[in-house]
Structure formats: C-alpha cells, structure tokens
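Bug report (template v2)

What were you trying to do?
Predict the complex of my protein with fe (ii) ion.

What happened?
Run completed; filing so the output is reviewed.

Input:
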Amino acid sequence: MATAEKSSKENKSSRTAAKKTARASGTKSAAASTDARRKRAQAVASKSAAKKATRVSAKDDKSLSDLFEHALGDIYYAEKKIYKSLPKMIKAADHPELVQALTSHREETAGQIEKLEAIFELLGKRAKAEKCDAIDGILEESESLLEDFGSSVAADAAIIFSCQAIEHYEITRYGSMRAFADALGMDEAKQHIDDILAQEKAADASLTELAEDSVNAAASDYDEE
Ligand SMILES: [Fe+2]
Ligand SMILES: [Fe+2]
C-alpha cells in the first residue's frame, strides 16, 4: 500500500473513532441532563406536596367558630377605641344636632360593648380585645382630619366624613358576624348582633341626613361667599 493511501485510511479510522466517542459522550450527557431534570421535578413535586399538606392541616385547625371568635375580639377592640375617640369629635363638632347624634351614639356604644361581653359569656370565654389594624387606620385618619379641619367651617362635614367611615366599618363587621352566628346556630348571639347592627345603620342614616340637610350646605355656602 502506498504511504499516502495508508495515512488517509488511518486518518479516516481515527475520525470514525472520534465520532463514536463524541456520540457516546453526547448520549451520556443527555442522559445526565434528563436525570437532573427528573430530580428537579421530583423536588418541586415534593415541595408542593409539603405546602399542600401544611394548608390542609391549617384548614383542619381553624373553624368558623374560631373565625367568629376572632371577629368578636376584633370588634370588641374597635368599639372600645371608638368609645374613647368620640369625645374629641363631640368637642370639635359645632352643629347641635351633630353633637347630639354623636353623644347619643357614644352612649349606644357603651351598651354595644356590654352586648359583646355578653356574647363572650355565651361562648364561655373571657372578653378579650384583638388589635384590629382596620379600625386603627380609620381612627388615625379621623384624628389627622380633625387636626386639619377641626377649626374650619368644614369641621362638621369632616367629622361626619370620619364617623361614616367608622359606621360602615362596623356595619360590614356586624353583617358578617351576624351571618356567622346564623350559620353556627347561635341565636342569642345573633340577636345581640342584630340589635347592634340596627343601631349602627341608624347612626349612619342620621349622619347622612344631617350632612345632606344642613352641614354640607352650610359649609358650601361659605365657599360661595
Ligand atoms: Fe359600634
Ligand atoms: Fe357605630
């Protein structure tokens, strides 16, 4: 065999061998990456199963009665804070009917606190307030509104503005609690909630009436002058 031919044959066979090695190593690395993918998928699946298991056990731990009790602690905290906040608003109010409405609603609030304590008693629990961020926010805002508008002609309108936010907060909370009590067959608690809810709705309606009939008009008259 001529030397050139021999060397060409040798080159060809070494290229073939190299190709074979490359194919083999490609197959190996493809297998390795499939394996890694499978492991990753398994890890994700087991993580999500663990999360699900936590959720399921959390679901098992809490019931509608627990939610009712939480809501009760929440609104108990709110009513106590509202009771403490009202004197400042009463002092800043100018319209005699507004002063009267806020004063009598403060008295109702004292009665509502007692009703909530009666509900705690029905549950066989000691009355305990749970910090409620929602009412804290509303009351903080009403405080700063009072600072900004308290000595202006729009003071009464600002007080009604704040108080209606409070009333609406209370109406949503008592509305939900009423439905919980109904679902739980807690008739006596539901009756107390119904009574309170009626007072909150009436307070809200009388504030609307007062705003529309005189307070807003008096403040806007001043704007027109
Ligand atoms: Fe209330
Ligand atoms: Fe109220």
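What did the reviewer find?
The radius of gyration is 36 Å. DSSP finds six helices and no strands in the chain.
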